[in-house]
Amino acid sequence: MSSTAKKRLIRDYRRLLTDAPEGITGAPSSDNLLVWNAVIFGPVDTPFESGNRWSPTYDVAAILTSIQSLLHDPNPNSPANAEAARMFSDSRKEYNKRVKETVEESCKMSTTAKRRLMRDFKRLQTDAPEGISGAPCPDNVLIWNAVIFGPVDTPFEDGTFKLVLTFDEEYPTKPPHVKFISRMFHPNVYANGDLCLDILQNRWSPTYDVAAILTSIQSLLHDPNPNSPANAEAARMFSDSRKEYNKRVKETVEESWA
C-alpha cells in the first residue's frame, strides 16, 4: 500500500475518533489498514432504531453517514432486495415488522457480559477519551480490536499501536486479557505483547470499562513503571539511558505505521 493511502486512512481514522458523525463508527482491522470494520446504529424515528457517485473527496465518515441515511430513506426504485422494496412501497407495516426482527437479532445479548460490552461500546462512540479507539469484532463481541495513539510529548508520539482485548463471560467481574499486536519496547510490556498493569491483575474492579482500560494503558505509555518490569532491558534503559530508550521506542513508532 502506498504511503499516501496509509496517511489518508490514518487521517480518516483520526477524524472518526475526534469528530465522528453521530451513530457511526469504523476502524481498520488489526492486521490490515486497508480493511475496515464499521458499525452503524439505526437512525432514530425509523424502524431501524435501538454507490455510483464515488468521489476521492469522500472519507470513511462520509461513507458511513451515507449508509446511515440510506437506512432512514430507502430507495425502492433501485432495489437490491426486491421483496424489501415491494414491502416498503406496498405494505409498510409488514416492512417495519420484518426490519424489527433484524433489529432484535442485532441486539441479542444473551449474557450480562455481552450486554455490558455493548454498553462499553456505545460509550466509546459517544464519549471516547482522546487518543483511544476500540470495537468488538463483527462476529464475536467478546473479542475487541483497539488502537491507542501514542501520547504527545512522549517518545511514543505519532504511533498507532494496535491491541486485542479478549473477554469471557465473567466480565466485568473478571478483567479481559489485553495484548499489544504492535511491537512494543516498554518496561511494562512483555516481548509477546502482554502487559504488566495492576488494574488488569490484582487491582481490577468491575466498575472499569473498556474506555478505562485503554486510558490506563495510554497513561502507562506516558509514565512507565521501571520498578515492576516486564521488559528488563527497556526498564534499564528507561532508568539509565533515556536517550537510547527513546531511540528504541521511536523504532516501534515507525513500525506501527506499517
UniProtKB/TrEMBL annotation:
Swiss-Prot/TrEMBL keywords: ATP-binding, Nucleotide-binding, Transferase, Ubl conjugation pathway
GO BP terms: DNA repair
Keyword field contains Transferase: yes
Enzyme kind, highest EC tier: transferase
Listed GO MF terms: ATP binding; ubiquitin conjugating enzyme activity
Keyword Nucleotide-binding appears in the UniProt entry: yes
Protein name: E2 ubiquitin-conjugating enzyme
